[in-house]
Amino acid sequence: MQQRLSPQQIQGIKLLELPTLQLEQRVKQEIEENPVLEEEERENDQDETNLTLEDYIRNEESASSYKLKTNNTSKDDERRSPTLSQGMSLQDFLTEQLAYHNLSEKEMTIARFVIGTLDDDGYLRRPTASIADDIAFTQGIEVTEQEVDRVVGIVQMLDPAGIGARDLGECLVIQLKALRNQTPAVRLAITILTDHYDAFVKKHYERMMRRLGVTEDEFRAALEEIMHLNPKPTNGYSDESSAASPNIIPDFILDYSNGNFDLQLASRSVPDLKINSSYLRMAEKAMNSGSQSESDKEALQFIRQKIESAKWFISAIRQRQETLMKTMRAILQFQHDYFVEGDEAKLRPMILKDIADATGFDISTISRVVNSKYIQTHFGVFLLKYFFSEGLPTEGGEEVSTREIKRILAEAIENEDKHDPLTDEALMDTLTAKGYKIARRTVAKYREMLGIPASRLRKEL
Q1: Among 85-94, 150-159, 203-212, which is the least confidently predicted range?
Q2: Per residue in 384-397, pLDDT tens?
Q3: Which residues form the RNA polymerase sigma factor 54 DNA-binding domain (predicted)?
Q4: Residues 6+ positions from 238 with CB-CB distance below 8 Å
C-alpha cells in the first residue's frame, strides 16, 4: 500500500507556500473560476448565516462568515501606489550615439544587432562567429567576422565607457584609454591589465613590480587608477524593464510597545470570501422539488461541486492563516529577546526542528511556512529564514548562533591591516580567544559564505 496526497491536500500545501502578494492573485483567480465563490460585503454578513442546504451546507455559518482579514480602512482612505520613474533605456541611449559615427547602412545594422546582444551588465559575451551567423539568419545580410569585430570596436567607443567589452579586463582597459589625461599611472595601469592580468587578479604584486621594473609608489598609483574604474559599465543607466525596484510585501506585521508584542497577518487587499446566496437558494429549490429533469440533475450536481470546492477553498485559507500565525508565534517566543531590540547578538540558534517541536507541525510544513515569507518589525523587514541558524558550543557550554560567528569574522576582517590581512589560522585564533573553538576549515567555510576572499586576495599595498 502507498500513501498518496489527495488533490485538495496538494492544493492546500501550495496555498501554504504562497506569500501574501501571490495569495491575493490566487484568491482572485479562484473567484473568477468558481461562480459560487464571491467577495463578501461587511453589511451583509448576517444575511448569510441562516442559509442551509441539507447535508452539503451544514456548518455553513462558520464557512460563509469566515473573514480572511479585518478591514479597518475607510472608503475615504487614499490608496497610494509607488511612483515609477522611467528613463531612456540603455539600448536606445547607445543607438542614439551611433548617429555621431559615419556608419554605412550595413554597419548600422550590425551595430544595432550588437547592442541588442549586450548582457544586462553591458558586456558582449557572444562569440563573433555566432553574431555573424545570427545576423545572416535574422537580417538576411552576409557579414564577415572582421566586419563584426570592427563594429564592436565602434560600439566600445560609446558612452558609458567600457560598454561592449568581452571580459572584465577589456572593460577596464577601455575605460582607461577613454581618459583624457593619459598620465604615467594610467599608462602603467593599461600595461598591467593588458600584459599581466592573471597576476593582477591573483594579487602577485611584488612579482609584477619586479617584472615591470617600477617602484612601489608607481605601482600603487596605477592600482589607484584601476580601483576608480567601474566593473559594470551599465550602473546608473535605467532600463524600462527595471525602472522600478521591486517592493517587499510583508506577510506579518509585528508591533512592539510597552513590553507587549502585537502580531498580525498582513492581508492587504485579499477580499473576504463567502458562498453566493443565489446558488444556495437555487440548490435548495432543486432539491426540494418533487420531480427533477435530467438537466435539473446536472445543474444540481454542478452547483454541489462548486459549493464543495468553495467550502474547501475557504477552509484551506483559514487553515493557512492558522498555521502561519501558530508558526510565527513560536518563532516570536523562541527569539523573544531578539525581537525586543533587534540586536543580532541576541539571536539564538534555531533550526526548523525547534519550531516543529513547538508547534506540533511537521518540519516540511515549517519549511513551507518560512519560504519566501517576510515580517515587518519596528527595526526593519526580514525574511523568516533570517531567524534560523545553526548553533555552535562555546567553552562555557552555551550555544551561540553561527550568525554571531559570521558577524565576528566580518568585523575582524573589516578592521584588519590590509597590508598584512588575517589568515584563516589567525581568524581561528581570534575566535578561540573569544571562547569560540572552531576549526580552521570551518572558519574558511564561514568566510566563503560571507563572500570574503582569502587573505592573499585581500592584500593591499
Answers
A1: 85-94
A2: 888 887 766 666 55
A3: 301-459
A4: 85, 86, 87, 88, 89, 90
